[in-house]
Amino acid sequence: MASKQVYVICGAAGSGKTTVAQYLRERFNMHRVVTHTTRPPRPGERDGVDYHFETAASMAKLHLLESVTYDQAQYGSSREGLAEGWQRGQDDVIVLDTQGAITYHQALGDQVTVIFLTVSHLAALAKRMSDRGDHQAAIAARLKSPEYRRDLRLPKELVGIARVVVNDDWVTTKQKLGQLINQK
Ligand SMILES: Nc1ncnc2c1ncn2[C@@H]1O[C@H](COP(=O)(O)OP(=O)(O)OP(=O)(O)O)[C@@H](O)[C@H]1O
Ligand SMILES: Nc1nc2c(ncn2[C@@H]2O[C@H](COP(=O)(O)O)[C@@H](O)[C@H]2O)c(=O)[nH]1
């Protein structure tokens, strides 16, 4: 199998990680790695497309490359998910929390490009979640979680490694992503 890249998109909740992953899939023909979670689907989310939605019991049976607890739910990704894209000759794109991004960087080294998303005004994050249709109770729980607070900032382990993209304006973000991908 040719050595391909995996683009890891991490950053604050609501900063646009899923939107960026979808764009990289469509514009650069990347393979979107679908990860596993025990959290319930949000309005409009589909099993096998947005996530593999699991129970605690089904999650425990998976052979995962890494897993985390985020806002009281479990999340995890597998080597098989990465291999799907690479076997087709595609680069992968995956959406992870910052802990997952650190693990990927440590495990896969130069094969990993980490992109950390942020916004200039943090108040935009809750508004985007609300505009996305998230339930108000889910937004409140998310904003209170320690993982949400942690992922507002680039962790020290990713300083000098992650490419930071301020996703305030979508047109500007697309230009930055294009520059970043074409440099690889
Ligand atoms: N540059 C932007 N300007 C305005 N809205 C945006 C921008 N980028 C993304 N959005 C919107 O913000 C909302 C949150 O984006 P998205 O779901 O991609 O975030 P996320 O980081 O994956 O969130 P979470 O971690 O909560 O799953 C979506 O409705 C998306 O369309
Ligand atoms: N380390 C991992 N993080 C993951 C994985 N799948 C998703 N995520 C991240 O979890 C939080 C919460 O996701 P949400 O969809 O409930 O908002 C977010 O930061 C995702 O990027 C995974 O397999 N491993």
From TrEMBL:
Residues 4-182 form the Guanylate kinase-like domain. It comes from the Bacteria. Belongs to the guanylate kinase family. Essential for recycling GMP and indirectly, cGMP. CDD domains: GMPK. This is AAA family ATPase. The keyword Transferase applies. It comes from Limosilactobacillus panis. Signal peptide: none annotated. It holds the Pfam family Guanylate_kin. It catalyses: GMP + ATP = GDP + ADP. Keywords: Kinase, Transferase.
